[in-house]
């Protein structure tokens, strides 16, 4: 049987709302020791916010973290996967999109997150190394 994303994804995710502030999101990321969170509204994926987004799009521009909304900082064109997709397809998507993690969407709603680290915990080999290399060698600006 082919392994799917649902076999390795993290189900208990932490998410933020578009109306939350950068400070709220940063505190949540710190509390849970994570570097990105899906942005949801009524359970539906609206975007993705990373710690880097907060630094580059907010702090470095002198915007107040206590009043700048997540909706102003998040990436809205977010690649995602579904629970039924194969792990191979998820790895290929991560490499193509140059991201280390993907929201998992089922029926329009965020069902979990899958990361390259989740895959690497179970599998190793040239496919993982290649994906990590492609992701790591990309410039951050190419996604903006």
Structure, briefly:
This protein has a single domain, classed as CBS-domain.
Architecture overview:
- Strand 1 (36-41) and strand 2 (44-50) form a beta hairpin.
- Strands 1-2 form a two-stranded antiparallel ribbon. Strands 3-4 form a two-stranded antiparallel sheet.
- Helix 3 runs parallel beside helix 5.
- It is α+β, with helices and mostly antiparallel strands.
- Helices cover 33% and strands 18% of the residues.
- The protein is globular.
What is the CATH architecture term? Roll
The end-to-end span amounts to 38 Å
User: From the alpha-carbon coordinates, what is the Rg to the nearest angstrom?
Assistant: 15 Å
Query: How many strand units?
Result: 4
Which strand order do you get reading across the main beta sheet?
Answer: 1-2
Tell me the β content: 15-25%
Low-confidence stretches: 139-144
Would you tell me which CATH topology applies? CBS-domain
- What would you give as the CATH superfamily? CBS-domain
Biggest pleated-sheet summary:
2 strands, antiparallel
Mean pLDDT: 88
Q: How many distinct helices?
A: 5
- Assembly classification: single chain
Shape: globular
């Amino acid at each position: 049987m082919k392994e799917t994303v649902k076999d390795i994804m993290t189900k208990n995710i932490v998410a933020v709302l578009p109306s939350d502030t950068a400070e709220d999101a940063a505190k949540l990321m710190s509390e849970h020791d994570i570097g990105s969170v899906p942005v949801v509204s009524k359970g539906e994926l609206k975007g993705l916010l990373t710690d880097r987004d907060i630094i580059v799009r907010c702090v470095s521009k002198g915007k107040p973290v206590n009043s700048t909304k997540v909706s102003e900082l998040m990436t809205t064109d977010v690649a995602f996967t579904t629970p039924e997709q194969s792990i191979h397809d998820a790895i290929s998507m991560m490499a193509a999109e140059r991201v280390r993690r993907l929201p998992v969407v089922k029926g329009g709603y965020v069902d979990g997150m899958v990361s390259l680290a989740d895959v690497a915990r179970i599998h190793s080999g040239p496919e993982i190394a290649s994906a990590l290399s492609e992701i790591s060698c990309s410039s951050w600006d190419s996604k903006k």
